[in-house]
Write a structure and sequence with these properties.
With 322 residues, the protein is of the alpha/beta class. The protein has two domains: 190 residues, 3-Layer(aba) Sandwich (Rossmann fold), CATH 3.40.50; 97 residues, Hypothetical Protein Yjia, Chain: A,domain 2. It has nine helices and 14 strands. The strands form two sheets. The protein has an eight-stranded mixed sheet with strand order 3-2-4-1-5-6-7-8. It is globular.
Length: 322
């Protein structure tokens, strides 16, 4: 990675992509902790209107949130405006130094479409240079995503670097087959491993066969969309965890991602799940007064998936949780 300012004066941009639940924020948080990118301005893109992932990125010099639409489609106008504003700030007197912009995309974003958007904007094409596209793939859920989701394949194909996350959660042969599949989809991108954001050496398995991927051309799937669920006024974390477990057992194949902040007796808990796998809740500090990024609403959960009815979910929780 280039150190210091570029000779042409352009500001480097790194896109961090990957499907829902791949571990982008966890990986990025560790890179920020070890100052891997220098002085950075992080843009966090959330498909839902309520931001959550920015809560994990306290080590960034600056964090801005683009919520309410993927940067490659519904949120493209907001992305262009945010990048133009960052470039403009670099020209002002006494402006703080920024070595790089990091764009953490929504799990529903296509990094290739974002790259084309940037190159088509005359001002951004002159002021920014796309130096890297880092795409993360979940070792546990990646094989299914690549079989079923055309977007997951486009993300891999657009990568300049591929990172397999959570490799300890699956047998080495499954990881090796996933790596072989990634190399078939993108033969030029190096493939690395990471566990909780920390570099992890992937065990070589000679002659591991790639997974067979069906042709998805012409296959139409219901779009993945976010739903909001207000769980305030219920019986707290214990009741919600039971309700969520039952929901994921019944609809876990349709609900790709769940995230939000739940208040409990001991404070604020960051809740995250990928399909049927709920991660251990993480304790969060109390929100700072006058924070520069939009505050996440406590006790409002975002569920991202297919075929969900927001009103039906609310009635279900109301019946069970109160």
């Amino acid at each position: 990675m280039r150190e210091g300012p570029r000779a042409d004066g352009r500001l480097p941009l790194t896109i961090i992509g990957g499907f829902l639940g791949a571990g982008k924020s966890t990986w990025l948080r560790h890179q920020l902790h070890r100052k891997a990118f220098g002085a950075v301005h992080v843009l966090v893109n959330e498909a839902a209107e309520m931001p959550v992932d920015n809560l994990l990125l306290g080590k960034a010099d600056r964090v801005s949130v683009l919520a309410g639409g993927c940067a490659c489609c519904d949120g493209r106008v907001a992305l262009v405006a945010a990048l133009r504003a960052i470039c403009g700030e670099q020209d002002g007197p006494g402006s703080s130094r920024t070595d790089r912009i990091l764009l953490e995309t929504s799990g529903l974003a296509d990094p290739g479409a974002i790259a084309r958007l940037l190159s088509a904007d005359p001002m951004l094409a002159r002021r920014l240079v796309l130096e890297d596209v880092v795409v993360l793939v979940d070792a546990l859920h990646g094989p299914v995503q690549l079989r079923e989701e055309a977007l997951g394949r486009r993300q891999v194909e657009s990568a300049g670097r591929l990172i397999v996350t959570k490799p300890r959660e699956v047998p080495p042969l499954q990881v090796a087959r996933l790596v072989s599949t990634l190399r078939r989809l993108n033969p030029v991108a190096p493939v690395e491993g990471a566990e909780h954001g920390v570099s992890f050496e992937l065990a070589p398995v000679p002659d591991a066969d790639p997974y067979a991927l069906p042709d998805l051309a012409g296959v139409s799937a219901e779009p993945i969309r976010p739903c909001r669920l207000d769980i305030s006024g219920g019986n707290g974390w214990a009741a919600f965890s039971v309700w969520l477990s039952a929901l994921l057992a019944a609809r876990g194949d349709d609900i790709v991602r769940v995230k939000g902040v739940v208040t409990g007796p001991d404070g604020r808990l960051l809740l995250q799940s990928v399909r049927k796998q709920v991660q251990p809740p993480e304790m969060l500090p109390e929100p700072k007064q006058g924070a520069p990024t939009p505050e996440t609403q406590d006790d409002v959960i975002v569920l991202i998936g297919r075929g969900m009815d927001e009103a039906l979910l609310a009635r279900s929780w109301s019946t069970f949780g109160t």
